Amino acid sequence: MDTQKALRLLFILCIFLCVKLHIYSQQLNYDKEVEILLSKMTLNEKIGQMNQLNFYEMNDELLEKVKKGETGSLLNTTDPRTVNLLQKAAMESRLGIPLLIARDVIHGYKTIFPIPLGQAASFDPQIAETGARVAAVEASENGIRWTFAPMIDIARDARWGRIAESPGEDPYLTGIMGEAMVKGFQGTDLSDPTSMAACAKHFVGYGASEGGRDYNSTSITPNALKNTYLPPFQKSIDAGVATVMTSFNDNDGIPSSGNKNLLKNILRGEMGFNGLIVSDWNSVGEMITHGFAADGKDAAMISANVGLDMEMNTELYIKHLKQLVEEGKVLETNIDNSVRYILKLKYRLGLFSNPYIEVNKPTTTYSDKHLQAAKDAAIKSAVLLKNENVLPLNETQRIAILGPMADAPYDQLGTWIFDGNASHTVTPIGALKSNKDYKNLKVIYEPILRSTTDTDTSNFSKIQEIVKKTDVAVIFLGEESRLSGEAHSLSNINLIGVQSELLKEVKKAGKPVVLVIMAGRPLTIERDLPYADAILYNFHPGTMGGPAVLDLLFGKANPSGKLPVTFVREVGQIPLYYNHNNTGRPAPDNAKTLYTDETNAKQTSVGDVSFYLDSGKEPLYPFGYGLSYSKFEYSDLTLSSNVMGMNDTLTMSVTLENTSSIEGTEVVQLYIRDLVGSIIRPVKELKGFQRVNLKAGESKAVRFTLSAEDLAFYDVDMTKKAEPGYFNVWVGGSSKAELGDTFLLE
Ligand code: GLC
């Protein structure tokens, strides 16, 4: 490299280091500014910062509270002018401390992206980051600078309505998607007016609620906590997430908002989180209902003493903390520590220097760029489950479009879309009408049902006549928005109502049937399979779901999504997930079930292994599964070595070939199994994935690298390390990957 080039490189490096130093010094300075401000604050003012209120309406009482410094944060106001009035009142308080304005911006603010379970199906963290960035830009212009996302609860129970908000069952995928959302929401500089503080939630284990019943108890062992539920939070913490939210559930009898070990020893201590901890909605007050706190004062004392910095909505801190401090039951140093986290976040967001929202600039909501990003996300999030040579469709075909989700602008958005406007949703029917590419299609459309829960079959009589006039029927079924999300658990996850009957009725007409499902969870659809020649699964695809689905159905886009969660055959199989333990009696693939021809069968004739007599051991579709219009073949798995030292890395290479005539993208997945551990290790663990695009007939070597750190886990002594021994490794297009090899870690 010549001298000129070297000098130029050195100059750029110096600039980069100066910028990093400046940002870091800013952080250090905030410590100084925080201490100066804290030293001026009265106990009442400190406690006021720890009190987060829900915004119901603007009134003098609220403004008075703000002016008196009795609240540090408000959630659920989305009008920038209202925010400015509130911030003005805050800046007029004795010490002029601005407010944190928060909202649940989970998968979009106005432009709605696929629900997080759908985004996870893309196996594309860029989708999640872009979606979060778009949401931050749209929400921040409306005054919101703190969102309660990403939700990174591991979810293995499709009965739980909040599986919709999660990235699914796998810690590795969940960690990567959560990290991407943190980056998207927070941007590179939290003080940028388009940045929002992110919030890793719900800490921790909420997705393991017993029976899939929301808010229910969990019984997560220390091993499962450390090796399954905490890793995604560590990933978000390492990505710099500004806040963490405690969960509603009690784990092993202790509610998270009062769990000293969880918050002090693990979150603050072991995981090194140094941001703001906020409670979930009424969870501090709910410790009374749990039977963990005697009354509001007791609850306030418990939470304040375990380091819960900000109490959402129950106002027990503002009612009781002063007295608790005076009684010596809560140390003022604890209060000071919480207030430091709160003030520091406000400094980092730039709120002290500029708390106000510019109200006259043009809006970014629903911009073409944002809508295009939402469409791209919806395309990559769709999973092709079945295709008996029916898809892609062609535009010469006469098409019957039926079903309640074909034109459901609100329900297509999914859950947690407080601010998404259904009038902007482009449904599949809407796309047919508005998109010039599809305007000339010969389509007969009839919803047949008013909604997915409509049980009026009187329109079934129209089906035969409609379908017989066409070449192919496309049926849009699934779940209306309210059937998933918070407090929306289901004990039966079949297609609800008479949707399966509708599908059967359509198939009677003898034409090819394409089933498009829009839902907030994996449904048990085995009984529907015989009546659908192709199935495209969309986890509520958001604002641009219509154009995305049409492009996929007509081959303008090629499905590439993979399942982020196992699809069970029967709800009774739950929990059933790919990264399970082997047990001492794993069921072989040919495990017999009840339906044999034996009579007077003896007790030991079936079932001496770990499976279900009536539904076997296999799911309907495994984690990581998804088809494409292309055909991908894997071959030549080679390891850089079959022996790996603790300080080595191991590279695996596989040849991926697109043997079809259609360009497409495959999510290549890397799984391992640690064959012997000081505690049992799962039969498979996802340790890498790559989206690989191949032209027709193209081949490519796909490489992964593993280090001992990638193989480490919390062992029987709760020490995180890799243990020497043999490992199996597989590479393939789902968690059923069979192309494998073995290596020895020494
Ligand atoms: C809700 C949810 C939580 C949300 C909070 C604020 O009950 O559990 O995810 O962020 O309250 O709306």
UniProtKB/TrEMBL annotation:
The gene is bglX. It is an enzyme of class 3 (hydrolase). GO terms for molecular function: beta-glucosidase activity. This is beta-glucosidase. It catalyses: Hydrolysis of terminal, non-reducing beta-D-glucosyl residues with release of beta-D-glucose. Keywords: Glycosidase, Hydrolase, Signal. It comes from the Bacteria. Its EC number is 3.2.1.21. It comes from Dysgonomonas termitidis. Belongs to the glycosyl hydrolase 3 family. Residues 666-735 form the Fibronectin type III-like domain. Pfam families: Fn3-like, Glyco_hydro_3, Glyco_hydro_3_C.
